[in-house]
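Exercise (ungraded).
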Amino acid sequence: MDTLPSGVLSGSGDQQVAGATGPAGQSGATTAAERAAILDERLRRGYETFDGFILGERERAQAESNAAGSVSIAGDAGGGAGGGAQNQPQTMEEAAAAGSSGVLAGGPPASSSQQNVETFPPPEDIPSGRDDDVVARQLREAAMREPDPELREALWDEYRNYTGIGEEQ
Amino acid sequence: MRLPNKQLFGVLLIALFLNACATHTVKTTTYTPVIQDSQNLPEELLLDVGVNIFDPGLDEVLDEEEETTNGQIRVAESRYAPYLLAETLQRSANWGIVRVMPNDASPMDVLINGTILQSNGEAMTIRVQVQDSKGREWYTREYHEVISQFSYDPQQRQQNDPFQVIYNKIANDLLAYRQSELNSREILEIRTVSEMLFAQRFAEDAFSNYLTQDRNGNYQLAALPADNDPLMNRIRNIRERDFMFIDTVQDYYATYVRQMRLPYDSWREQSYVETIELRELRDSARRRFIAGTAAVIGGLAAATQGGTYGAQASGVVGVGAGAYLIKSGFDKQAEAQIHMEALEELGQSLETAVAPRVINLDDRTITLSGTVEEQYTQWREILADLYATEVGPQ
């Protein structure tokens, strides 16, 4: 498997923590708070890359699962390797290179490639979603993929109604 | 000594009776539904459940099933059954998230291990061991179900797996244990220990003092981080991503289960018929050997020691009948061998269909785990830097 490039998490390799090992640039040592902020930024960028990678991989896996479901229903009980190299998860490097699958990636997909799906971050009041059931998860994913802001907000409203977020507040 | 005619008839009758005896197998005819907790627990009291890939149980196959048990199919089942169990638990709505675990790195509140002890289409036996994140073992139980042909009815199959009852019973026992053995405080403690174990995985130095282990090796909470502990908040962010990774693996399993379902069900249904035939033929052969031997012994005794001509004649008849029974026992054994070979062929056919899918599933899971783990290593380094920065030199 490919190894991860250095700096994937930081978003760019030249944004390493300058003050981490000593004086930084022209103004001498960074303060602890500044250094923590830089490290937090590296984490945040890492999350973005990770989210984009995982969402892309999930979309692929769900598409395969749906295809397998329709094949099963159609009654194809045949064998076959079912997979191979084309089913392998992409590496984080590939995900980072794909760019448009990143959560915060801006602009429309550059090509008609089916793998390049733009996603949009959830509004601030939306929780992590780790306890989502299947319906909530589908609503969440639909909302994160919806490019039209109005439709997207409508989907988030639907998500709020379904999960009862509005009622709690 | 001479045997009276009554005793001779008795021996022959016993021989015939033995031959006529048939074994009976109790099959499940009632459907045990999944019980839903009557209490509506708040979200923070729902325990997350991890289901490990099952042990195929190949070391524990019974001698008489060794020839008909296909190792590759068992391995395939050891990835199929946990997914069905996880789905059943999730559907019960008695738990938080329920997932098949890609590895043992991510701590879950409740962890289920299973071993498949038997699976031949007619019967399934699974041993289940349950423990929580504190390390306390809840219980180890065996679940055994023998199903009827009705379970393979297409309409039934649309709704449930033929052995759905076994998963329902496991789910119901799990709920019963939680209801009877855990109060809210203990549930919260288990959940906090899971979180602390996860935190230790990413920032061991920072979180090493929050947990202690008692003499049984069970974890106890020694302290808690502050509500607004910045490092803990970062760990929670990472944990959300770890759940996303585990969710992705669920999608792999969903694909696998869907791909395997039709050929696997077809194999189980045919195996069901062959297994019953095989057992009945083996039982019949055994009964014929016993009855035939008894008839021969009784007949010989009568023929040599019978007091009357009639007794001696019936002794000879008894020997002949016994010899016939023994011969027919060998015939049944030969028939049984044909069914055994049929079972082996069925197994090889399914093996060809599912073995590549198992390899593909494992391969993808391992590849994704490796990719994710590389990210985690980098996050660990950043968290260590952050900890050093925020705590300062000791």
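Further reading is listed at the end of the chapter. For now, observe: The helical segments of chain B are 5-20, 71-92, 154-159, 164-181, 184-202, 204-207, 230-305, 309-391. Residues 161 and 239 of chain B are 33 Å apart (CA to CA).
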